[in-house]
Fold this sequence. Notes:
With 119 residues, this protein is mainly β. It has one helix spanning 26-29, and strands at 4-7, 10-13, 18-24, 33-39, 46-51, 58-60, 68-73, 78-83, 92-100, 103-104, 113-118. The mean pLDDT is 96.
Amino acid sequence: xVQLVEYGGGLVQAGGSLKLxxxxxxxxxxRNVMGWFRQASGKEREFVASITWGGSLIEYAxxxxxxxxxxxDNSKNTVYLHMNSVKPEDTAVYYCAPVVGTTPINDNWGQxxxxxxxx
Length: 119
């Protein structure tokens, strides 16, 4: 069973920064490509970023490119999302998941972490 715990969200002013973390079980993290997704109220979940096990291949959604940075610590089974220059449109619940390309491997999700950006 997939086990994912996201945390680090909160209330942040536009232009500010936030760091999200996601701890996965050993089985889930493994050597998988890990990704971040987000779901705003009333909208579908969307891809944000992904990173391969060795960190050599990273992808970002156009909407966050240049502002967000994804990283991972394989020794801690943890993937991070560093959010800079946040905008109100970044407000959403953020989730992590193992992915293939920009698609989740399955439909098992953690509880997510809420990010709210105010102007």
